[in-house]
Amino acid sequence: MTPLSNPAEAEQVKADLAAAEAELAKPRPEAQAAWEKQQVEAHAQSGKDFATAACQLLAATTPNGSPDSLRITPDSALEIHGGSYAAYTVSSKLPESMKTVHGVRVVFEPAAHAGNTLGYSEGTFVMTTVNLVATSFQAGNVDPNSPLPLRRITASDQRPGFPVSAVWSSDTATGWSPPGGSQPQHLTLTFAKPLDASQFPYLTAELVFNHGGASNPGRLRLEAFVGETNDSDLPADVWAAVQIPVDQRSPEQAARVQAHFRDFSTDCAQARYRVANLRERLSVLTEKHSVLVMNESANPRKTHILERGVYSSPLEEVQPDTPGFLPRLAKNAPLSRLDLAEWTVSRENPLTSRVAVNRFWELAFGRGLSTSTADFGSQGVWPTHPELLDWLAVSFMESGWNVKQMLKTILMSRTYRQSSRTTAEMLQVDPLNEWYARGPRFRLSAESIRDQALAISGLLVQRIGGPSVKIYQPGDLWRAVSHYGSTPATSQTFVQDHGEKLYRRSLYTYWKRTLPPTNLATFDAPNREVCTVGRSNTNTPLQALVLLNDPQFVEAARHFAIRMLQLQGDDATRLRYGFRAVTAREPSDQEMPLLTQALQQEMAKFSGQSAMAQSYLNTGESGIDPRYPVEQQAAWSALAQILFNLSETITRN
Fold first, then answer.
1. Cα–Cα–Cα angle for 387, 383, 647, nearest 5°?
2. Is residue 570 within 8 Å of 537, Cβ to Cβ?
3. Residue 338 lies in a domain
4. Could you say which of 185, 200, 231 is where a domain stops?
């Protein structure tokens, strides 16, 4: 592990970042010409058979807001009075004249109550995201599990720094914003496939404006449309420059087109990803991070016994002290947190050390010397080896509470290193392995399974410290359990992190107690609403599905496949290496043919299927390795997933 602040590494990252930025800024005339041609061809199709019709607004609500702030006008427009609310759910009925709908346009109009401008923030607004759902009945809310998939999001115009592409994300730090003023603007949402309006005549839209401040619109309406929208995917100045021949553009126009190509084209996606990753890494290494600082109060609050627990009926004052059945504190008064800390690790208080080493033992063996890890009181279970527990506790204290040394002692013991194989006679005598005649066997914890996959693949970031990170998570699940709060704990939108943050140890994963990370919760990670010392240990089909489908594990399998492909030698050599990497042993004569057969099946499945292989390999944010054919990478990635899914891989055996 490396510390959070490392000057040598920071300088290296700065050098790598400068090289990556230079690579991103490098002109790509052929790729840019092809991209410009694609934009011109797409624009030629815009507006083809395009027609709109107004939707009939039925109801509108805002969470945690006054219903009086919203009003539906007779001409089916929504007026929003006041800019302090973050989101609006609008129920509407699609026009009966349209049997098939290709998309929806949100039209923003100037409002008298907003100073005859579009919104409450400098005459405009900032939309962070939008969700749509079509139903056969009038719905009051958007189902977060079944939103209408979109193919394209375009707009009439956009302000610098507020591109329409930001609507794809739920990040509150970004959003789409048109120029302020009294000119109507619109956002066009094209469905991934046409909607049968006769089967789903009702449309519910969730419009979110939680960028901060009074960033809301004053008046809007919904329109359904058919055909191809006449909006451009490009800002007006970029589109105007693209129409000018290259040799006739001004330096400013050429630079503007090149900058947009660099920032948004797929040709530069990998270069952008590397720059963003290095910038994030540099910020982690060099920026200051907030830490909790505690200080003793000059005038400590007095504490009283309360009559019947009523806070307004205090009785006699009480002083800090320990329970009478435990050793007393070293001094009488005044007592502070420091006194409590010193008492906790005092040689006269062996309870702390006993509890700690029992938990370390449970980490290594799956169960503690006392199985009631969370209860060392009178209701606890007597340890199977009390002398061993005492010896470990004393050794832990004498080492200066050295956790690494204690873990090394346990892990290098003959007891831990013995095989978990057993016999029928041993199972009959000691079915629970309470006497440790064989090695432990139990499934790894959720965090260990994820970190193990990242470590084997080479993706794991070894650095210690830093802020919490938001890893891959399916869908926008936070909506089902949250409201539109202003803090991460109450936020309704999950904004995934990027770059190296996705590959940090699970210790740094951001935890929302009402909805823990799903890939960890599936492996019995607790929700942390209460302290959980002993976890349950289950085996379910969902766990196999996580290992096979979760982006974290699919991406890790892809990088593990590259590690195997980089080896010199034949496929058998690579298979042996891969199996040894996940199980710490060589494959047997019975297992090797099965691995070879599995690889051959995957090679046959992806042979000639480059599109399918490309789609499979695109899982995760890291790019595809250009050194190997995509069909070969896909086959070996599928094999790597098989290795990750082995019971022996996720089990301490």
1. 115
2. no
3. no
4. 231
Are 42 and 100 found together in one domain? Answer: no
Give residue-wise pLDDT tens across range 428-450: 999 989 999 999 999 999 999 99
**pLDDT tens-digit map of 370-404:** 999 888 888 889 999 999 999 999 999 999 999 99
Does residue 313 form part of some domain?
Answer: no
What is the rounded (10 degree) CA torsion for 600, 605, 609, 614?
Answer: -80
Q: What is the pLDDT of residue 5?
A: 57
pLDDT number for residue 1: 42
Contact by Cβ (8 Å): 500, 282? no
Q: What is the dihedral of CA 280, 285, 290, 291, to 10 degrees?
A: 130
Nearest to 114 by CA among 210, 251, 219, 184: 219
What CA–CA distance (Å, rounded) separates 217 from 378? Answer: 64
Neighbours of 107 (CB within 10 A): 18
Q: pLDDT per residue over 525-583, tens digit each?
A: 998 888 888 888 888 999 999 999 999 999 999 999 999 999 999 999 999 999 999 99
Residues 413 and 451 in one domain: no
CATH at 220: 2.60.120
Question: Taking the CA atoms of the chain, what radius of gyration do you get in angstroms?
Answer: 31
pLDDT at 34 over 90: yes
If asked whether residues 243 and 124 sit together in one domain, one would say no
Q: Phi and psi at residue 149, in whole multiples of 5°?
A: -70, 140
Does the residue 339 lie in any domain?
A: no
Do 640 and 495 sit in the same domain of this protein? yes
For residues 61 and 109, state if they share a domain: yes
Residue 252 located in a structural domain:
yes
Q: Which residue range is the domain that position 15 belongs to?
A: 7-46+239-286
- DSSP at 501: G
Residues 6+ apart with CB under 8 A from 363: 407
Give the end-to-end CA distance of the chain in Å, rounded to a whole number: 26
The total of structural domains in the chain comes to 4
Do residue 187 and residue 260 come from a single domain?
no
Mean pLDDT of 397-414: 95
CA torsion 529-535-537-540 (nearest 10°) is 10
Strands (E), 38-141: 51-54, 56-61, 70-72, 78-80, 87-93, 100-108, 129-135
Q: Which of 73-87, 388-402, 479-493, 562-576 has the lowest mean pLDDT?
A: 479-493
Tens of pLDDT, residues 155-212:
998 888 898 988 988 777 889 999 988 899 999 999 999 999 999 999 999 998 888 7
> For all residues of the chain together, what is the average pLDDT?
88
Query: Are 219 and 248 members of one domain?
Result: no
DSSP 309: G
Nearest to 109 by CA among 182, 17, 24: 182
**Do residues 30 and 119 both lie within one domain?**
no
